[in-house]
Automatic annotation (TrEMBL):
It comes from Tahibacter amnicola. Keywords: Cell inner membrane, Cell membrane, Cell shape, Membrane, Transmembrane, Transmembrane helix. The keyword Methyltransferase does not apply. It is found in: Cell inner membrane; Cell membrane. This is Rod shape-determining protein MreD. The chain crosses the membrane at residues 131-150. It is a multi-pass membrane protein. InterPro entries: Cell_shape_determining_MreD (IPR007227), MreD_proteobac (IPR026034). The lineage of its organism: Bacteria, Pseudomonadati, Pseudomonadota, Gammaproteobacteria, Lysobacterales. Coiled coil: none annotated. Involved in formation of the rod shape of the cell. May also contribute to regulation of formation of penicillin-binding proteins. Belongs to the MreD family. Its main location: membrane.
């Protein structure tokens, strides 16, 4: 019963991240939209690494590609790299204070942007504007709130199940 509830919470947070990724914003605010799917996958990679593997990260990336109409495999590649790095350094990242985790998340999201630039270069797309780099900073600022929200939901689920 507990495993099923945790699975539904896991799935609900990923669906919410996909919906937030699809949420329309005015053109002026669009560069400030954080990469919600990456932030949620970072959380689950840190807290329950058995639920997230490279295969699942790839599948969620493909779902993100299809939902946003991106180049098929773009987000999948970026999310696999992101989850690999988080899983590799999980033992250290998990015990950082939240402000250090936020800096690590900034590094992960900047790495995601660099991979995105590489994919764009290989596909022949033009270089993005400077505002392309705003979203990782917003993601870093959103990280403590996302972490605390999902962690609180998990804690409430554990208390409810006990």
């Amino acid at each position: 019963m507990i495993r099923r509830a945790h699975f539904w919470l896991f799935l609900a947070t990923l669906v919410a991240a996909c919906l937030l990724q699809l949420a329309p914003l005015p053109a002026l605010l669009l560069p400030f939209k954080p990469y919600w799917l990456a932030l949620v996958l970072i959380y689950w990679s840190l807290e329950e690494p058995d639920n997230i593997g490279l295969g699942r990260a790839f599948l969620f990336g493909l779902v993100g590609d299809v939902l946003q109409g991106d180049l098929l495999g773009d987000q999948a590649l970026r999310l696999v790299a992101l989850v690999f790095i988080v899983l590799r350094f999980r033992a250290r990242l998990r015990f950082f204070p939240i402000w250090q985790q936020s800096l690590a998340v900034l590094g992960l999201l900047l790495n995601d942007r660099v991979l995105s630039l590489m994919v764009r270069a290989f596909s022949g797309a033009p270089l993005p504007p400077l505002s392309f780099w705003y979203a990782p900073v917003i993601g870093m600022l959103a990280w403590p709130w996302i972490f605390l929200l999902i962690d609180d939901l998990r804690a409430r689920l554990r208390v409810h199940e006990a």
